Amino acid sequence: MSLFLYYVFIPILIHFRKNGYSINKTGKRNLYIFIDMAHIGKQFAVKGLNKSGEGLIQIYINFTRTCRKVISTGVYVEPKYWDSQKSTIIKHPLALKYNFLIDNMKLSILKLENDSKDLNIDFTAELIDDHLNTGIPFKVFNEYYKKELDNTVSDPGTYKDQLKTLQHFNSFNPKIRFLDLNLKLIKEFDKYLHDLGHAQVTINCHHKNIKKYINLSIKMGYYPIDISKHPYLGFKLPNTKSDRPFLSYEQIMAIYLAQYPTFRLRRVADRFVFACCTGIKVSDLSRVTPDKFDGKMLKMEPNKFTKTSGCAVIL
Prior knowledge:
The structure is a single chain. This protein is of the alpha+beta class. The protein has 3 domains: about 1-135, no CATH class; about 140-230; about 250-315, no CATH class. It has helices at about 1-15, 45, 95-120, 125-135, 140-150, 155-170, 185-195, 200-220, 250-255, 265-280; strands at about 30-35, 55-60, 70-75, 80-85, 90, 295, 295-300, 310-315. The strands form 3 sheets. It has a 3-stranded antiparallel β-sheet, with helices on one face. Strand 4 (about 80-85) and strand 5 form a beta hairpin. Helix 5 (about 140-150) packs antiparallel against helix 6 (about 155-170) and helix 5 packs across helix 8.
């Protein structure tokens, strides 16, 4: 595909640029892109060159007649090596390397414009700046979240909990770019969760998971932003107070002695009663195995995933 772009697409693009425009899929005129050596009017030979007599090759993007973006390629050559008609460097010792670099920059901008259309995003000078400075304008946070979830989380309970958050986030918006992460979006997601009727404690849990993966992406250098621009900066979750009722001994025994239509329900009831009598978290019941019993003592080791401390229960 890259060879096709280099040997077929670029020549076609140059052909259309005789009129100053690239052509989109509908055959309509698109943005105006051309490459030239930096210059100032007719005094190009003097003012446009550096002390070594070399001129800077730049990419000019005209969005409209009054809106232009100029991008430096970082390539300097003497005017005799620049063919302005073909927008290419000729007869220079590093001509192949420089032209390849310039063409890659040009292709990346064209691809950026194409991707922006696919995502219904305005192609602007600011978007190009984001692309050149960070390289993340179209990296999707949802995809990063799922990839890291699959690669780093091994505890089944934690995986299920964080996957549920991702499912809600995908229902809210399946393609949220890193550049779209801001306080306004976080508040909109918060409203979305409230509209679904979730309890505040559940909403807080979802926010905690989203914030975790944002922090991870920043730490790993995948989302290079200043901490002062963190999406959750300025967003405060309300404290939740839970008023959980306690079951009486008679109620627990009623659950234990009740008749259940299936073995599965019988087992669920037994596990629940066991948790009530020992104080073990329901999520830790899966770790209770015969080797954990020492006479009339149940010994539980710390869980490195949930950071649960160990305990010993007299039965």
